Backbone:
């Protein structure tokens, strides 16, 4: 018995040599760039009110340290156990999304999206993204044969519940990310194009109904108008988009230099250490720095898709594809709103933006990808 256990442990250690180094290096690179961008975006504002200029960077370093532990834990167990507990994790995430709308939750700038824990904010919507990936992967991997239209709508229903709860916070950006995860996983699961078209038409009807009954907030409508028809909205509605474009445009090829960005230092761009962190790189590091961020995120997405394509296990394949869609769409949405090619919504840039919730969820997802990869490429097959 002890000999057998020792062999398993030794085999597991050997399997860790099969961790994807490119995926890990890209994520580390993004986190390091994020630290510099966060410091540049916040140090002068903090110093002006006599606070520690490195306060946010120190917090992000703490998040990274905890995230590294989270990543290792996610790698250490057999990812197929996640399929067994996917339903429990999914329901738990829904409970948190409901509770955050009660007095247990914390309201900031009109949005009630966080729990206040020991001086830090936890956003259950970030954890719900990974919970949804696990639930949809578990559900789709159990279906046999071609997916029927009923299967597609049942899958969509699982995604619609957390998406709607997040939308009510209100958090339109994360709701759209849930939709992107759903569509990507359905495509990988082999859903027929006509079923996806029916699902899209149903979504359009529901969105129109949402506008009609007043579920969409006035400021959300104004942001959409600012994107589709800038001439029809006020200067205030265009402020975020215009300042982000000015910041990125002023950086040129090589940027104005770290810590020297006028848009960044004078706080013209709002929420620059979180939602608009990409503009810091665009202004201070220029096209080369901003391009490096996009390149590293593209590597993360590419490796996730590669893992999905080479994993024989259906659950692992669909889960990896779901994570790729999550990171891919969230990157496109965040960078797109900074460049003016997408409407402004509050979604973080994976591994770069300040915030523990987003970073923990990203590290968990990264750990799951590594887990799937090493148990597909390594010698351990249990």
Residues:
């Amino acid at each position: 018995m002890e000999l057998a256990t020792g062999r398993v442990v030794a085999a597991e250690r050997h399997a860790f040599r099969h961790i994807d180094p490119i995926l890990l290096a890209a994520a580390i690179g993004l986190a390091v760039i994020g630290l510099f961008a966060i410091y540049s975006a916040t140090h002068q504002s903090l110093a002006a009110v006599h606070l520690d200029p490195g306060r946010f960077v120190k917090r992000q370093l703490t998040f990274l340290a905890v995230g590294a532990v989270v990543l290792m834990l996610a790698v250490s167990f057999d990812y197929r156990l996640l399929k067994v507990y996917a339903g429990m994790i999914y329901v738990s995430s829904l409970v948190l999304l409901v509770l955050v709308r009660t007095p247990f939750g914390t309201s900031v700038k009109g949005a009630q999206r966080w729990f206040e824990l020991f001086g830090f904010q936890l956003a259950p919507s970030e954890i719900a993204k990974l919970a949804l990936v696990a639930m949809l992967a578990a559900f789709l991997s159990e279906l046999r044969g071609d997916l029927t239209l009923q299967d597609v709508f049942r899958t969509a229903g699982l995604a619609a519940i957390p998406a709607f709860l997040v939308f009510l916070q209100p958090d339109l950006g994360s709701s759209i990310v849930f939709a992107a995860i759903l569509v990507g996983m359905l495509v990988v699961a082999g859903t027929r194009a006509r079923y996806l078209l029916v699902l899209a038409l149903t979504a359009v009807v529901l969105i129109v109904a949402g506008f009609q009954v007043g579920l969409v907030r006035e400021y959300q409508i104004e942001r959409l108008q600012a994107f589709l028809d800038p001439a029809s909205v006020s200067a205030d509605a265009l402020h975020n988009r215009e300042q982000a474009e000015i910041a990125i445009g002023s950086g040129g090829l090589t940027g104005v230099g770290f810590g020297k960005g006028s848009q960044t230092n004078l706080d013209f761009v709002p929420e620059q250490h979180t939602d608009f962190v990409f503009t810091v790189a665009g202004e201070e590091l220029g096209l080369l720095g901003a391009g490096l961020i996009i390149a590293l995120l593209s590597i993360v997405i590419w490796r996730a898709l590669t893992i999905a394509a080479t994993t024989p296990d259906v659950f692992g394949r669909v889960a990896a594809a779901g994570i790729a869609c999550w990171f891919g769409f969230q990157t496109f949405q965040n960078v797109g709103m900074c460049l003016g090619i997408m409407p402004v919504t509050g979604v973080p840039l994976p591994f770069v933006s300040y915030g523990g919730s987003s970073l923990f969820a990203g590290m968990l997802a990264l750990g799951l990808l590594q887990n799937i990869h090493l148990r597909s490429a390594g010698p351990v097959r249990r």
In short: The two ends are 17 Å apart (CA to CA).
